[in-house]
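My current task is to audit a protein record that another person submitted. Alongside the sequence sits a line of tokens, each denoting a local backbone shape. Please read both lines and tell me whether the tokens look consistent with the sequence. Do not assume that whoever made the record got everything right. Thanks in advance; the entry in question is below.
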Amino acid sequence: MSNANFPMDADGRTYHVGVKRGELANRVLTVGDPARAIVLSRSLDGVDRENTPPKTIPANLFSFASHRGFLTITGRYKGVPVSIVAIGMGVSMMDFFVREARAVVDGPMVIIRLGSCGSLSEARVGDICVPSGAYVVQRNYNYFAEDAASTHEQPYHFSKVFPADPEITDTLVRNMASKLGENHVWKGINATADSFYSSQGRQDENFKDDNQALFEELTRHEPDTKTLEMETFVLYHLARASTGAPLLATRQAAAAATPASLQSTNSIRAGACMMVFAQRKTNAFITKEDVARVEPLAGEAVFDSLVEVSLGTEDELHATKGSVWESI
């Protein structure tokens, strides 16, 4: 490894995700569970579904598993290069993924998350939620300090809402409804928690969490809060914080670039959708059968959305020559 500021190995592989230039496409579907990534990879072009055993990455696709638990699979969908990246769980893993993916891909990117969530609305287990925006819920560690009573601290902090890309959101809603039916697709605001337990209102007598009123606090903060999970806010935030610097690597964009345009142009467009695994109002939880039914349909809807959203001309994207999708 070299460069403590942004570590890469001698082959140009990033420190956590483990990818290098030419292995990751401009269009990315990201999930948490590596098993889900493998299931979804069966929808890509050229896969021999009959002779590819379950839980096996199709032989015609590129794949790389990093020592930090990230799994990348790259192929084509309807002729368009796409990648699937499994990142695990939590805000830090999303941060690793987005920053390291951005570092090895030239040109604009579209990233769509397909994950799972808890529902705070009428959305039922097995339904799909497409958040038009997200905010973060953070445990306030100062509140639990010995002198907290004298500082008037609150146990949880809530950020402002960061929006998804509107075109991606509308495209996801339309494609999900086509696959699963309009009555199974919901749109609203997502709350991204920094933990699975305390910051999502789960009760645990073994710890002092003071989260009994958390659901009410969330809806006071943002009345259209529909879902709780652990990753989407960071994706939306980093997409909004992305600069135009990666666009310089492509010929067409570089010709028109100015210092001001690089700071004002976002090089990442982001969206997300989640399968409802937990209904927090009724305490219902999804069955394995429902996961097996919904997961591949939702994956196809995301792939359709990825290839429908325009990213510009071929000259504006990462070069095919020398990439892993050149021969796929």
User: Anything to note?
Assistant: The radius of gyration is 20 Å.
